[in-house]
Amino acid sequence: MERTADIFRSMSTGYIEYKPYDFLTIKSTNSYDWINSDYYGYSSPLSRSGESVGGYVYNENAQRERLSTSNMVTFDKTYNNVHHVNILGAFEAEQYKSDNFSAEGSGLPNESLSVLSVTAVPTSVSGSSSGNAMISYLSRANYDFDNKYYLSGSIRRDGSSRLGLNERWANFWSISGAWRLTQEDFMAEDKFINDLKLRASYGTSGTLPSGSYDHLALYSYSGSYDGAGSAVENQISNPDLTWEKNKNYNIGIEFGVFENIRGSAEYFTRKTSDLLMNLPLAPTIGAGSTMVNIGEMENKGFEFEIRSDNIIKEDFNWSSTFLFTSVKNKILKLNNNEEIVSSRQVRREGLPYYSYYIPIWAGVDPADGTPMWYIVDEEGNVTDEVTHDSKEADPAIAGTADPDYYGSIGNNIS
User: Fold this and answer.
1) CA distance linking residue 126 with residue 103, whole number of Å
2) pTM for the full model?
3) Residue 34 pLDDT > 70, yes or no?
4) Which residues are paired to 10 by β-bridges?
């Protein structure tokens, strides 16, 4: 058996910059990323893996290309040594394309020939092509007074081909502020605290569907009927598919003490509307599911980080990092309060997004060694009664995939 993969990648980036004044910069950055992948598989007709089919050969070629451009104008100036203003306006665009082709054949004449053209039986042939594009207009303004008070605001308009024809464009914005207390006179003599800053922000953002064509009516041509090709509907159109919208709020504090310890603590919330979900359809429609904007969800939590420089010398450095995060997730609203069951998970109002929905295991009957499950009542509650019949074991909520908290401890020695 032989398996090879040859991957070539070319990444090219270039920019043009022009500064008509010291405070004004005009810059255009353009990039092209191309990946070509060739995969080859071969099993000799004399090998254990290939003897049942007389050997086989597999060829696949995949190409990915991404073209992007970013064009911005930046104004940056300080007035009277204390008023710093930075204003940016930009236009960005990106285009992505993917092509894939593969073929497999079996029945080789001998072990010396290992190319696809000599196989006797064409086992499979497949190909695909996909792509998407996005355009963004954005602006941002930053102001700080004497490195003490900070204010920032931004607005952008994004359009994507991944969304329905009626809802491809959306506007997003944000505003934030910060106060560096250690720049104030009342903290000038503090020897313990080296840096202390309070910050808060609120804004909106958008999330795109993962697929390039979730908004289109799609047909599958992989089947056949009476010796001819056939088309089967596998997705209905949704011209109103739009951005999943997020409202983000956070408030935090950044600090530095003893010259070698820095850290931050932050509380955050994210409320999501127009939630992107696959909605199962009735079998009579003919398509399994369709992507829709349905429901609302909330994430809120706390994040803490601390970094320390333990040893700093010319020939030896040791630093440590500790991270701790706790996030709570809950679905706030679904369409008509209807739950959506997806394999072993369920989407239900009041529960986390990744809630397991499975028969509840009750162990093994010590008397005869047969498996047992708990019986679930009509209201979905798990009872103390058990059953040996898996058909009577209705699914129930069995926890969530989300951890109560997570974190890490890291050390860097150089």
Assistant:
1) 6
2) 0.81
3) yes
4) 34
